[in-house]
């Protein structure tokens, strides 16, 4: 098992709080974001909005029928990625940038003081202190380079919302936004598209830095409709739902949004919005 996320997250942001957040983020030193179209590079290939999607992190079976697939780079070879691309599949590279995992090859290289509280429902994983990102950012750069070297086209940077959670550290919204900006720039420098994972509150500030969004459990409340900012910028939004009740709302998805039903194991099983299942 490579990924476990939280259950339905309900968005409830007062307009005054939203304005305050935007003001803080706009004042980040060295910030490269601030609106649609900030990043442009003809060498970066983005997935087409409305593409079919699959995420398979438990293990790779090779049984991929989707147009876009999210995979753990430690589970696949360069040859397998080349084979997917030859079939017209868009491979996305999963990188857990916000949590330390004890099974990773580089786990011993992280400074102990940057490793925080345990990540919910994922044994062996702990939050990282994004406030001290300079102490381990080179490791994330190396991970993203592996994605590029293996032939992936995009990066799924997970757990970039630690500033909202009990990580064991005081991570500010500014520190988190700056971290995402740096990760995005690193991916772009490697010729990779960059995906924002969740973290809806910062989308207005980061829209110019991202090339797509991968979202979990957004149909259970009002969150899904707020991702229209990404769709309006001509970028794909892929939604992963873990319950039948939330998944049923995919019939109301706007154009460009793709919703799939997965189990928390994130193995090869999938159901698309038409009801078609794949074991």
Principal-axis shape: globular
End-to-end span in angstroms? 17 Å
Q: Which range best describes the helical content: under 10%, 10-25%, 25-40%, 40-55%, 55-70% or over 70%?
A: 10-25%
Gyration radius, rounded: 17 Å
Largest sheet: 10 strands, mixed
Estimated structural class: alpha/beta
Oligomer: single chain
Total number of helical segments? 8
| Secondary-structure element pattern, one letter each | HEEHEEEEHEHEHEHHEHEEE
Strand tally is: 13
Q: Stretches where pLDDT falls below 50 for ≥5 residues?
A: 1-17, 34-38
Short summary:
The chain contains 8 helices and 13 strands.
Describe the 3D structure.
The longest helix has 17 residues, at about 175-190. The chain is built from eight helices and 13 strands. The strands form two sheets. Strands 1-2-3-7-8-9-10-11-12-13 form a ten-stranded mixed beta sheet. Strands 4-6-5 form a three-stranded antiparallel beta sheet, with no helix packed on it. The protein is of the alpha/beta class and about 280 residues long.
């Amino acid at each position: 098992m490579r990924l476990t996320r939280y259950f339905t997250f309900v968005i409830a942001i007062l307009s005054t709080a939203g304005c305050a957040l935007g003001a803080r983020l706009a004042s980040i030193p060295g910030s490269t974001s601030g609106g649609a179209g900030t990043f442009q590079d003809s060498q970066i290939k983005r997935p087409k909005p409305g593409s079919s999607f699959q995420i398979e992190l438990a293990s790779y079976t090779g049984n991929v029928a989707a147009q876009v697939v999210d995979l753990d780079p430690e589970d696949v070879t360069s040859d397998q990625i080349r084979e997917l691309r030859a079939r017209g599949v868009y491979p996305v590279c999963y990188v857990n940038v916000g949590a330390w995992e004890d099974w990773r090859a580089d786990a011993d290289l992280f400074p102990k003081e940057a490793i925080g509280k345990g990540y919910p429902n994922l044994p062996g994983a702990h939050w990282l202190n994004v406030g001290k990102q300079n102490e381990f950012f080179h490791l994330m750069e190396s991970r993203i380079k592996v994605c590029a070297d293996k032939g992936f086209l995009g990066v799924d940077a997970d757990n970039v919302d630690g500033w909202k959670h009990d990580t064991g550290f005081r991570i500010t919204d500014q520190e988190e936004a700056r971290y995402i900006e740096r990760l995005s720039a690193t991916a772009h420098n490697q010729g990779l598209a960059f995906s924002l994972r969740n973290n809806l509150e910062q989308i207005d500030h980061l829209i110019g830095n991202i090339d797509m969004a991968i979202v979990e459990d957004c149909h259970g409340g009002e969150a899904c409709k707020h991702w229209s900012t990404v769709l309006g910028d001509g970028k794909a939004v892929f939604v992963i739902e873990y319950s039948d009740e939330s998944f049923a709302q995919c019939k109301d998805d706007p154009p460009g949004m793709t919703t799939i039903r997965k189990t928390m194991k994130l193995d090869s099983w999938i159901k698309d919005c038409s009801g078609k299942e794949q074991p």
